[in-house]
Amino acid sequence: MQILSKVWLFCALLFISSTASAQLTIEITRGSDQAVPIGVVPFAGAEGMSEDIAQIVQDDLERSGLFEPLERSAMFEKPSQAEEVEFGTWRSLDVRYLVVGRAQQSGNGYQLQFELMDISGQRRMIGETVTANANDLRGAAHYISDQVFEAITDIRGAFSTSIAYITAQGLGDNMQFGLYISDADGHNSQQVLTSDQPIMSPAWSPDGRKLAYVSFESERPAIYIQDVATGQRVQATSFEGINGAPVWSPDGRRIAMSLSKDGQPEIYVMDIGSRSVEQLTNSNSIDTEPAWSPDGRSLLFTSDRSGGPQIYQYSLGSGETKRVTFTGNYNARARYSPDGDQIFLIHRSSRGYQVARQDLDGGRLVVLSDSTRDESPSVAPNGTMVIFATQQGNNGVLSAVSADGRSSFRLPAAQGDVRDPAWSPFLN
Amino acid sequence: MQLKPLARSLAVALSIVVIAGCSSTGGTQDGDSYGSQDGSSMGAGTSGAGTSGQYGSTTGSGSGAGQQADSRIPEVRTIYFDYDRDSIKSEYESAVMAHARYLRANPNAQVVLHGHTDERGTREYNMALGERRARAVQRFLNIQGVSPSQMSVVSYGEERPAASGQTESAYSQNRRVVFNY
């Protein structure tokens, strides 16, 4: 066993930078026909603020696919608190819910007071005053979106989460790779690592504080673990052959990975504390792309033991493996839904490689995406959206589709390829 | 296709080195034009041997001219693969043979075989497919008598494409194994 118990490296490759060369923007590509009409009224007292709080909330809600925001130009009243809301006015605009609020400067930041109104029920649902730092107004807005989303849907909002992703530019021997973290809406991208060698497969620790990823910086693949806040990192593996596809166990103590040190790639589990690895699969075929079930008891993985790639489930208790996918001849890179009942994966259909969903205990496989060069699906921690990489023209872009397939949006980058997205767990 | 002239000249060079009559023009699977040239030179070098012998010892008739050629790293350092395949196409066998001769003649030489795939399919699965291609070349070289200690394999999967775009032409340039000395 050649595990490097290397000390934490302060690597020269590491740059934390707030300049965003890979800034992502949002394009809604498909709106749900069942989206709920909602109005988000511009906040009173927001003049001079660096961010438009109501616009951020409105964009968050629209991106979820569950809401259809009312155009601002259609709002002929601008209430900023519950007492000012004329229910009849908004009912005539077919709005079901209304978000109103006001901002007040306070020290180095703002007090943001918001209220959510149920128009058809003619009642105030929730309200809260949020203290926001001047440099984290977007974070405060996402917090408000989370509260509004949960009050209406009963599903925890995932707007205050992050996305890790990889950028690439160039060809062949002349390439630049970057590992970035941004807000879930693509804003505030921060460069975590750059390299002229490939970086791939970022994976969040369950507490959202660390990333595991594959880097070829030593001219061969190795898995690294990096602390997001401090940038400190350690090389976790340096086995012969493939060191790939890291994913954390739900308890954060182990990492499942694919290693080919003894021939074909097999699924292994590494204990992060001791660095010892245990081999789970043993087949004369490719076994890779593990995903840990939310209850920690089983793993999905891709194997071509039946010929083409299919999804299998390994039970940690019994050591038994069973095949999960049977539709078509290419199903790969599966991820569990947060409740563990469904899986999201890449399915090769007659049109191409697409994001699909299937019940874990059999059932029909449902294609969710319209695009046909999809890769790397990653599920939002509340299970409502799946982000994935696809192609737009000749560029790799990030795209997302709702878990029911009804709505989708895209996050194109200004330049280069963006790929390999990993949606963070709930943060804070 | 950039490689075609190289492959052609190598095939010609081989047929000069290995002066033997060819009794067969077979040995190709794809039936394309330059594949059959390589196929015939392969057949020439392995007179009378069975299937395994085709990949077995080919030296013996090489002698002087061959040794001269073996002092330099062979020029063709990239070979290409069919979609979803890891078998070495017959048109590239002579190129791989040249590397085998070079590595045998230079026991201190080290080669890293870089396996690559086109962009279709998932990244980590492609990593495994790229490794499969590089290992197929490694096995071939090993059967040719190259010491395992001279070879290592690194798969880059789809991470380092040689050509961009979603065309069959780009894909075919990306499905490759590169010999790195």
Automatic annotation (TrEMBL), chain A:
Gene Ontology, cellular component aspect: periplasmic space
Signal is among the record's keywords: yes
Pfam families reported in the protein's UniProt record: PD40, TolB_N
InterPro entries according to UniProt: 6-blade_b-propeller_TolB-like, Tol-Pal_TolB, TolB_N, WD40
Predominant location: periplasm
Stretch forming the signal peptide: 1-22
UniProt domain TolB N-terminal: residue ranges: 24-124
Single Gene Ontology BP annotation: cell division
Lineage top rank: taxon: Bacteria
Keywords: Cell cycle, Cell division, Periplasm, Signal
Location of the protein in the cell: Periplasm
NCBIfam families: propeller_TolB
Function: Part of the Tol-Pal system, which plays a role in outer membrane invagination during cell division and is important for maintaining outer membrane integrity.
Sequence similarity: Belongs to the TolB family.
Record's subunit section: The Tol-Pal system is composed of five core proteins: the inner membrane proteins TolA, TolQ and TolR, the periplasmic protein TolB and the outer membrane protein Pal. They form a network linking the inner and outer membranes and the peptidoglycan layer.
HAMAP family for this protein: TolB (MF_00671)
Name of the protein in question: Tol-Pal system protein TolB
Recorded name of the encoding gene: tolB
Automatic annotation (TrEMBL), chain B:
Segments of skewed composition (Gly residues): 45-65
Disordered: annotated span: 27-71
Highest taxon of the lineage: Bacteria
Gene Ontology CC annotation, any one: cell outer membrane
InterPro entries cross-referenced by the UniProt entry: Bact_OuterMem_StrucFunc (IPR050330), OMP_bac (IPR006664), OmpA-like (IPR006665), OMPA-like_CS (IPR006690), OmpA-like_sf (IPR036737), Pal (IPR039001), Pal_lipo_C (IPR014169)
UniProt keyword annotation of Ligase present: no
Membrane topology: Lipid-anchor
Ranges of residues in domain OmpA-like: 68-181
Subcellular location: Cell outer membrane
A Pfam family recorded for this sequence: OmpA
Signal peptide start and end residues: 1-20
Keywords annotated in UniProt: Cell cycle, Cell division, Cell outer membrane, Lipoprotein, Membrane, Palmitate, Signal
Extent of Low complexity compositional bias: 27-44
GO-annotated biological processes: cell division
Family: Belongs to the Pal lipoprotein family.
Functional summary from the UniProt entry: Part of the Tol-Pal system, which plays a role in outer membrane invagination during cell division and is important for maintaining outer membrane integrity.
Quaternary structure (record): The Tol-Pal system is composed of five core proteins: the inner membrane proteins TolA, TolQ and TolR, the periplasmic protein TolB and the outer membrane protein Pal. They form a network linking the inner and outer membranes and the peptidoglycan layer.
Database matches in PANTHER family: LIPOPROTEIN YIAD-RELATED, STATOR ELEMENT OF FLAGELLAR MOTOR COMPLEX
Protein name: Peptidoglycan-associated lipoprotein
Gene that encodes the chain: pal
